[in-house]
Amino acid sequence: MMHWSQLLSRKRLGSGQPPAEATLRTDFQRDLDRIVFSSAFRRLQDKTQVFPLSRVDYVRTRLTHSLEASSIGRSLGTLVGEQVIARHRLQGFEASDFGDIVAAACLAHDIGNPPFGHSGEDAFRHWAQQGAYGRRRVEVLRGSEREDFLAFEGNAQGFRIITRLQNPDNRGGLQLTCATLAAFTKYPRESWLGGSRFAGVSAKKFGFVAEDRDLFEQVADTVGLIRRDTQHAIWCRHPLAFLVEAADDISYRVIDIEDGFRLGYLSLPEVEGLFLDVVGDDDLLKERLRRLSDDKGRVEFLRAKVINAVVSQAVSCFLDNEARMLQGLQEEPLMSMIPARESMERLVEVASRHIYCAPEVVEIQAAGFQVIGDLLERFIEALDDLAEHGDGATPRSKMLSHLVPQQFKGGRAGIVEGLYPRLLSLTDFVAGMTDSYAVSLYKKVTGISLPGR
Length: 453
Description:
This protein is mostly helical.
């Protein structure tokens, strides 16, 4: 059984300092601030949400998506917190603490996404599985060290960024509270489970790489997550992770439809029909819609109504299943249980047919796939050459190594020792790039464009 007083731990990962005394700015608000002011968060402004490298300012990027998901998450958390505090007579916590934890976790939920969105993740996996050079390097690894690359996961990369890569001189990276880190980790398991199969949404993907296993274990022990297996690193979810997942789902399902409308892939009647199917079309709502003469305003009005309705349903669903979550028995996402689940699923189906496969999306994603794969191939070959031959490495390898920031280098000849750590450093480097920087670097190392030309 998990307990809220422990699940809401203010202890900071990697810090020996006790939680701050009560002030107007709480520990969980500090988590929000640390994420907002991190360079990894700022880079989300040039990372794909749906439309890569879009020239339309209105279209969402990963940054705006994360901000909107965080806003939804704060509402979900605060509404749930109010009821949970009353239900369990929790002392020393406010409803806003729940909201701030979920909001912070939502802010960071996509911080590990590589360039070009989900197609970027596919490019990393393809490189590890079929890259001419990458496959030969990855296949000699074993267990989770091997699976970390074969099944490259942006969620695990995100945990790595906020606990290790951002502020690398600090143990624990940003040193966020364990409550926020646990709520952030929707998939609290390592990548390889020895052939064992675990049911449920929380085991669908992995949430941390082998090198970061000990860091997550500290988080899990601190907040009291239930361990699901004694041989492998897998735990039950923190209850608030269900709200983080719901906020993300609500945001992208609704917002992608709105973006699709603004870019002309969906008509106003199509969008109105989809959104009214979620909220219902009572006479009062119809009257308010008739008073709006601007098509954009009508869609924005309905979008707000949809989000409000689904947030309310998700909160009720969470509270109905809270006991199961605390027992580690809840393994179905909230969006699969709410009354509007079929209408919300229809939004995804329509987006898949009309938006995600749009030529401007697919063409640039395909190019991005090539960019990421080529960068990984060129850099790992050069770094391996330097690691194995030192000063005897080829001039080409030495030249390419100068393009890798010092943060991702170390050891003899400025190269990370050991194959697994070296591969991790390479994927840290490439995954952290923005869409534009990845394209620019690719053009330079391939000779497509030259500086100043």
